Amino acid sequence: MKTKLFNGRFELALRILLILGQKESASLDKLLSFDFITTYASSFNLSKDNLHGDNAFNYSEVASRRAMMDKGISLLRMYNLIDINYSDQNGYEYRLTGLGRSIERQMDDQYAIEYRQVLSNVIGKYSQFSSKKLMKLIDSNLMKELEQVDGILY
Are 18 and 116 in contact (CB under 8 A)? Predict the structure, then answer.
């Protein structure tokens, strides 16, 4: 059995709890976007440092992180820590159950504290963005970083 040390389903499940602790409900795309922007907040000018360090390939994580996040959601649903709701306006959205909220409140290690602080900035700035607009933001940020690298190389 192969185990992922970083961005595995368990780690992403914990970060989903942290996100839903600050945002009442969110779709998979919003969870993915908020998590990505939070972990690489320096790239979005929202923090001095990236929570996961500087990484030249951070944008390549988006696709694999989406699949793992889906597995993290399944894990949380299996333990009754989040519920899923559907509306015509927002599609499928996830929210914490009472048990999930209780566990989220107990997460108090240094990483959780720092993640919440940065996440608060992310939600404050991008809460009103649609999922599509958030993904465009990530894409445009990638293009800016590629242009900077291209400028250095040539």
Answer: yes
Query: Full-prediction pTM beyond 0.90?
Result: no
Are 122 and 46 a contacting pair, CB within 8 Å? yes
Find tokens 């780690």 and name the residue: 11
- What are the distances in angstroms from CA 154 to CA 43, 57, 140, 141? 22, 20, 21, 20
| Helix (H), strand (E) at residue 93 | strand 91-96
Task: Please tell me the distance from the alpha carbon of residue 125 to that of residue 136, in angstroms, as a whole number.
Answer: 15
User: What's the chain's length in residues?
Assistant: 154
Tens digit of each residue's pLDDT (9 = 90 or more) over 92-145 = 999 999 999 999 999 999 999 999 999 999 999 999 999 999 989 988 887 776
| Burial group, residue 67, by CB count within 10 angstroms (0-12, 13-18, 19+) | exposed
Q: What are phi and psi of 28, to 5 degrees?
A: -60, -45
Report in angstroms the alpha-carbon separations of 64 from 4, 29, 79, 143: 11, 13, 23, 19
Phi, psi of 76 (to 5 degrees): -65, -40
